[in-house]
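The instructor's notes for this session suggest beginning with a concrete chain rather than abstract definitions. Hand out the sequence below and ask the class to guess, before any prediction is shown, which regions might be ordered.
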Amino acid sequence: MSTVLVTGAARGLGLDFTKRYAARGWKVLACARKPDALKDIEGDIHPHSLEVTDYEAVKALARKLSGEAIDVLICNAGIGGSRGEGAQSLGSLDPKVWREVFEVNTLAPLMMAEAFADHVARSRQRKLIAISSILGSIANNNGGRYFYRASKSALNMEWNCLARDLAGKNVICVALHPGWVQTDMGGSGAPLTIEQSVPGMIRVIDGLELSDNGRYLQYDGTELAW
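After discussion, reveal the predicted structure:
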């Protein structure tokens, strides 16, 4: 049986990842601040209460799961960081929002990767996935959203570093853009539904090989410019 660990598993993209992997017969380690939302989902789901910015809790969970071989680890938990109009606009930047966004979007995924790298390395598939964003692309930048963009650019750099540092263990590290999706963060006007985005990302993840290590891809497999 294959095993996937998903953070932010109780809503949005994370919840759909959890449902779809469970429906495929995978063992799902579903991590969320409020995992009670997962109790009625059918399948081999193992809910874990986890605040991804509680790094002692992350280490404790890694110890608890020390015998697990995690085929796919999906660092999905993230926040947009908007707090009122203009919180991320030049002239009214809020440093508190910056710290919150970077804590969740940038530091927390790296701490998860550090804690669970060996779990992934001992698996058959060995895939370490960061849910990033095209807004983290410097090449495609059109300004604004300072904190969110910067947090995802930094996340991309972390995953590029992990691709190099874990290459000796044959771990495949890839940053994925889910598209602009109709979630709490993306809003109802987004062009993609969760039901379009997540299956696309799963297909991309399924197809990843060692030669894909270090890539930055969209939900449909399209290469993104750094």
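Then share the key points. DSSP finds five helices and seven strands in the chain. The mean pLDDT is 94.
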